[in-house]
């Protein structure tokens, strides 16, 4: 039986932490699924870490669906969450519903995620059977509104807004809430106040779950990582090293050897 939103609620009820990771392709989804990662988010971080855009803003529904389908083909057990791109859910509830349905029907996602206090859309989607993961704090699609990738919720006014929105999103029917780059004590307060699981990224240790972008965790992202990232591998260097060794061995005539050749 594959992971469902009820399993995530049960983790919280038992006080057991869980993880979500982003995935954008078939082989990574297979590996993470076999490793027992219960939730795979096809994040719109795809825009930056896979497609090379500067921000998440330009990625389209078609690009997201292409990768969501690949992840869904790779995962047998994990809950697949499709991330709705900028401009595809905020303006009109009708359009948001149409796009969310595309993620479920064409993308084979089990749930959708979108950013901000979109209570109306959450409520409509919950009513028609689309589970919604909400997302508050530093919501990257609003980078230009925030004036950069800055921690959110440091002022009392911001913090109170985030707490209120979190409660309203839960009431509207969201099954979980991503909290990105907010002070740890604010994330802890929200986690205590909600009965749905909170999933933190740069939100301290007290959320019910944690999420990282897989490219950050694997050390594939170049440059200095944000403070909250822990690199569990250094694949960028390993890939570069493997490519150089391959080129050197070909240049020296060592590869392909007899064991790699047909008679
Ligand atoms: O797009 C993404 O990868 C995300 C996570 C960072 C939560 O939204």
Written overview of the protein:
The chain is of the alpha/beta class and 263 residues long. It is built from 11 helices and 8 strands. It has a single domain (5-217), classed as Alpha-Beta Barrel (TIM Barrel), CATH 3.20.20. An 8-stranded parallel beta barrel has the order 1-2-3-4-5-6-7-8, surrounded by 7 helices. Helix 5 (93-105) crosses helix 6 and helix 6 (119-127) runs parallel beside helix 8 (156-172). The chain is globular, with a radius of gyration of 20 Å. The relative contact order is 0.12. The structure holds 3-methyl-2-oxobutanoic acid. 3-methyl-2-oxobutanoic acid binds at residues 22, 41, 43-45, 83, 178, 180, 201, 211, 213.
Class, according to the CATH hierarchy? Answer: Alpha Beta
Indicate the CATH topology. TIM Barrel
The N- to C-terminal Cα distance equals 48 Å
Small molecules bound in the structure, each named once? 3-methyl-2-oxobutanoic acid
> Main sheet: which strands, in order across?
1-2-3-4-5-6-7-8
What is the chain-wise order of helices and strands? Answer: HEHEHHEHEHEHHEHEEHH
Q: From the alpha carbons, calculate the radius of gyration and give it in angstroms.
A: 20 Å
User: How many β-strands, per DSSP?
Assistant: 8
Largest sheet: 8 strands, parallel, barrel
Globally, the shape reads globular
Number of helices: 11
What's the domain count? 1
CATH architecture: Alpha-Beta Barrel
Return the structural class: alpha/beta
Q: Strand percentage, roughly?
A: 5-15%
Stretches where pLDDT falls below 50 for ≥5 residues? Answer: none
What is the percent of helical residues? 40-55%
- Average pLDDT works out at 98
CATH 4th-level superfamily: Phosphoenolpyruvate-binding domains
């Amino acid at each position: 039986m594959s992971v469902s939103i009820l399993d995530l609620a049960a983790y919280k009820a038992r006080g057991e932490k869980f993880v979500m990771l982003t995935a954008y392709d078939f082989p990574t989804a297979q590996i993470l699924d076999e490793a027992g990662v219960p939730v795979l988010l096809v994040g719109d971080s795809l825009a930056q870490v896979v497609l090379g855009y500067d921000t998440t803003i330009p990625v389209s529904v078609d690009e997201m669906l292409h990768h969501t389908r690949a992840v869904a083909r790779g995962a047998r057990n994990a809950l697949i969450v499709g991330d709705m791109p900028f401009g595809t859910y905020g303006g009109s509830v009708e359009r948001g519903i149409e796009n969310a349905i595309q993620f479920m029907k064409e993308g084979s996602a089990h749930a959708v995620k979108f950013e901000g206090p979109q209570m109306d859309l959450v409520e409509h989607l919950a009513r028609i059977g689309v589970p919604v993961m909400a997302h508050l704090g530093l919501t990257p699609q609003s980078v230009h509104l925030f004036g950069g990738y800055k921690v959110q919720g440091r002022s009392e006014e911001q913090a109170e807004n985030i707490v209120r929105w979190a409660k309203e999103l839960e009431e509207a029917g969201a099954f979980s809430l991503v909290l990105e780059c907010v002070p740890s004590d604010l994330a802890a307060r929200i986690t205590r106040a909600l009965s749905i699981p909170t999933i933190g990224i740069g939100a301290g240790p007290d959320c019910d779950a944690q999420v990282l972008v897989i490219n950050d965790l694997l050390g594939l992202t170049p440059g200095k990582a944000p403070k909250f990232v822990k690199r569990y591998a250094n694949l960028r260097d390993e890939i570069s090293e493997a490519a150089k060794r391959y080129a050197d061995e070909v240049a020296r005539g060592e590869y392909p050897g007899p064991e790699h050749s047909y008679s």
